[in-house]
Amino acid sequence: MKAALYRSTGAAGEVLRVEEVGRPEPGPGQVRVKVELSGINPTDWKSRSGATPRPIDGFQIPHHDGAGVIDAVGEGVGQARIGERVWVWLAAGSRWGTAAQWTVVPARQAVPLPGNVPAELAVSLGVPAMTAHRCLFADGPVAGQHVLVAGGAGAVGHFAIELAKHAGASVAATVSGPEKAALARQAGADLVVNYREAGAVDQLSEFAPRMDRIIELALGANLDLDLALSGPQTVIVDYAAEPADPVLPVRSCMTANVTLRFVLLYGVPAAAMDLAVADISAALAAGALTALPVTRFGLDQIAEAQEAVRAGAVGKVVVVP
């Protein structure tokens, strides 16, 4: 099969190659998926670049997320799964990421899709939707609560808005400009605020004097705003470590009696991951989740595709194997 891969970390154009490799066979408890679309997340280019290095087993095919069809199953997996349309999560936990014509994953990491869900939505779930779910629900239900989503036009932010609305929350989102504001509104945010404009805190305070959940991707830059909207029941949940580590204002955090939580999907307990899959599947079936705008690249454009994500492309960047 054709696969994009790297054998050492470094710059995209220097280490990524498209090669012919043997098509993988599913082992016990695994399924093989013929990949229709491979989704790229920041974690993918960071691992390839060496910013967040992982061990390489001879070679690494990148990308955790994908959409496709199961065409073979390993021992212990029912034959009835062959032919299922699925979305795939954390595929690059082995060498067989989704930037290839086929991937193999444990059966639980290939999730059946309702028939009407397009591949463009399916490929966007995985890391973004499961991260959003953990951020929202690690501290209990959000029905009837007020949720603030920073970066409401990003992939995690998009699904955080939609999952929170589906769960019965009132949702505000912050963005950096009009194009992103439109995306956050399309996702269902009740209030969208440009955090760069004067009066952003006042607008958010009118919406909710105290937020119950704040889903954060730039804690260092946004902590003052977050604390202005926090109180004893507020949980600020951070899922990204950019642009720089914050200097923690301990007294202000104490005064607010705020709770800080940090989320990295790789360390989330298995039971919580399975709950995320179940809840995301239910939201899909209910029609509560939508796709972001998609930019497609061919497999031979893998370096350009990853660089587009690194540069902050709006929407979802996918590779077509």
Summarize the structure.
This protein has helices spanning 12-15, 42-49, 119-122, 126-137, 155-166, 178-187, 200-207, 219-228, 250-256, 270-285, 302-310, and strands spanning 2-5, 17-20, 30-39, 65-73, 85-88, 102-106, 110-112, 146-150, 170-175, 191-194, 213-216, 235-238, 259-262, 294-298, 316-320. The chain is α/β, with parallel strands linked by helices. Strands 3, 4, 5, 6, 7, 14 and 15 form a seven-stranded mixed sheet that branches.
What features would you describe in this structure?
With 321 residues, the protein is α/β, with parallel strands linked by helices. Helix content is 31%, strand content 24%. It has eleven helices and 15 strands. Strands 3, 4, 5, 6, 7, 14 and 15 form a seven-stranded mixed beta sheet that branches. A six-stranded parallel beta sheet has the order 10-9-8-11-12-13, with helices on both faces. The chain is globular, with a radius of gyration of 20 Å. The N and C termini lie close together (10 Å). The model has no long low-confidence stretch (mean pLDDT 97).
The poorly predicted ranges are none
The SSE string, one letter per element, is EHEEHEEEEHHEHEHEHEHEHEHEHE
Q: Tally the helices: what do you get?
A: 11
Structural class: alpha/beta
**In this structure, how is the largest beta sheet organized?**
7 strands, mixed
> How far do the termini sit from each other?
10 Å
Corresponding CATH superfamily of the largest domain: Medium-chain alcohol dehydrogenases, catalytic domain
CATH topology of the largest domain, which one? Answer: Quinone Oxidoreductase, Chain A, domain 1
CATH class of the largest domain equals: Alpha Beta
